[in-house]
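Hi V.,

Quick status before I head out on leave. The structure for the redesign project is tokenized and pasted below; the design run finished overnight.
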């Protein structure tokens, strides 16, 4: 909390780490997706996430586990963690919205705002800036927005069909949901017990103008680790 900003920045977070990660096989044959190591760091994705959250003022995290939960839980027990971590395990798949609601029930301070992130996102930007943006817009939920690079080269033409230029991996013209969120305390009650909040809760909040979108700051690093190619690219970017 700063003198000029009376808003209490969230100090608690949920990480959704229950996905199968089938597109990351064989890496995910024996571990959940967030336990896949970023090449060259010796640290799994979730380790990077917890370090980032702690650096942004988070003191408590709830990790929602599913697929191969015990591998993740064993690592958390043995790792030197920069914050308090609790795990919850879904007995049956609840969907993303149900999973969020289930995990949020274990947050230590239900009357305070909280962050959430998907367990396969590797990123670095100011969460406090995002929380301030959320507060200023009086939003119930705010999602980070990324502009990913298109994996193909683009071709630029003029109105006569002449090719003018080739652009390697240009940024997408569209913003996408970056998988990082700020939620007000009242958001939890709006989540479905099971199912996907992006089909139910988010559209409803959007209609009511209570959903905000925070564009990632220019130059902020963001990558979703979905496939083996993403791991390779992440390692290359790290080497730079």
């Amino acid at each position: 909390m700063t003198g000029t900003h009376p808003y209490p920045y969230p100090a608690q977070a949920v990480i959704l780490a229950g996905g199968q990660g089938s597109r990351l096989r064989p890496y995910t044959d024996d571990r959940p997706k967030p336990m896949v190591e970023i090449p060259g760091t010796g640290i799994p994705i979730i380790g990077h996430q917890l370090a980032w959250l702690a650096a942004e003022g988070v003191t408590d995290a709830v990790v929602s586990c599913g697929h191969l939960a015990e591998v993740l839980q064993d690592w958390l027990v043995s790792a030197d963690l920069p914050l308090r971590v609790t795990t919850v395990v879904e007995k049956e798949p609840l969907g993303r919205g149900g999973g969020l609601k289930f995990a949020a029930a274990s947050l230590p301070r239900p009357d305070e705002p909280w962050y959430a992130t998907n367990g396969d996102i590797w990123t670095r930007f100011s969460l406090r800036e995002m929380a301030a943006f959320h507060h200023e817009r009086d939003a119930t939920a705010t999602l980070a927005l990324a502009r990913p690079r298109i994996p193909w080269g683009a071709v630029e033409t003029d109105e006569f069909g002449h090719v003018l230029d080739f652009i390697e991996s240009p940024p997408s013209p569209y913003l996408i949901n970056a998988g990082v969120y700020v939620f007000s305390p009242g958001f939890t009650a709006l989540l479905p017990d099971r199912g996907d909040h992006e089909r139910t809760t988010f559209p409803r909040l959007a209609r009511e103008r209570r959903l905000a979108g925070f564009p990632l700051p220019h130059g902020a690093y963001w990558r979703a680790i979905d496939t083996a190619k993403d791991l390779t690219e992440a390692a290359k970017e790290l080497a730079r």
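Above is the designed sequence. The mean pLDDT is 88.

G. will cover questions while I'm gone.

Best,
W.
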